[in-house]
Amino acid sequence: MSPGDIACGESIDMENRLALLKRAGIKFVYESMVKASMAMGAARTGFDLSTGNRPLSAPVPKVEKADRIRKVVLAVRKTDNRYGSMGLDYHYFYGPLCDVADVKLFDTSSFSRIGMRRMNEEFLHVVEKEDPDLVLSCVVKDELYPKTIRHISEDSRAITCNWFADDHWRFDNLGRHYAPHFNFCVTVDEVSLEKYKRLGYGNILLSQWGANTALYRKRQVGEEIDVSFVGQNYANRHGLLSRLNKIGIDIQCFGAGWENGWVSFDKMIEIYNRSKVNLNFSTSALGPTKQTKARVFDIPACGGFLLTEHSPDLSRYYRAGKEIETFEDIDEAVEKIAYYLDDEEERKRIAERGYQRTLKEHTYQDRFKDVFKEILEKRAN
After folding, report:
1. What is the CATH number of the domain that holds 296?
2. How many angstroms separate the CA atoms of 168 and 31, rounded?
3. Is residue 100 in some structural domain?
4. Among 11, 19, 92, 159, which is least packed by CB within 10 angstroms?
5. pTM check: above 0.70
6. Residue 38: pLDDT above 50?
């Protein structure tokens, strides 16, 4: 929404109330869809939704598992059927994974064309034909049947591993139900890591989003945008942006719910490069939990200055005030935006440090190497 379109006083309060009501409606509909989808999956596959707090454990293989990871079947959605765009996990994972392993892609979005049952049959056929060391997946809801996964986990030499990216708010309705069917699982949420362990699932690994530096990279362009945000309009985002506009700070927003709307991937990279300050918010789409978003790595990978809302594990990846900058609330965000817009030298110094830290420690190639190493170590013990 542009500065001229944002009203003041009571109109802003009304807009905020409408935004909250809209978000609550979206949350209700989405959670209902997830529960309905899981219930349908249960009916088709015998998937036990009553796991509750009973102890969880990984499947016990009936055959000897691979003792190295060189060949991988990657099962992710190549297309996001909701938007007709590239699937997020494919977008991030496929290229970097090809740098560290021999990869065969299996497109789980194909269920929309051929149906769930046939897709699962084809998946089993691909795994049997390729005979991989590892089957890495990113289950979104119930596109891979639990019995399909368990068959591979128990009866093939392939190690199965699922990457759960949203355990912050999906642990109860997805993660804890699917994990017992995989030999290993990855979570990006430290709190959920302990939940898995308390429930008895010991083969849980902690990792995080990273940077696909072949896609997210520096461009030789000028900084023509003072402040930008690329992402959906929900939670506390509208309130902060209204405050910035009221005090005369020019901010441009892109994505669902904003006047500028969606932008192409190429345009997004250009925005990251052209912005003096790139904003990021940490509140989850469905719930108050704060999580480290993928943008935390995407923006520094482009050499951009990142000002992000604080999240609990952020200090594991970057030093605030040295490689990125953070804020706790709207007042602090406004203060820091004004400061860094004025101090170009310090802003660029922080952005460069963040860029170098990202290239050194936070690429997906690094993430996969660490995960593979931990899987093999745990398997050997």
Report:
1. 3.40.50.2000
2. 14
3. yes
4. 11
5. yes
6. no
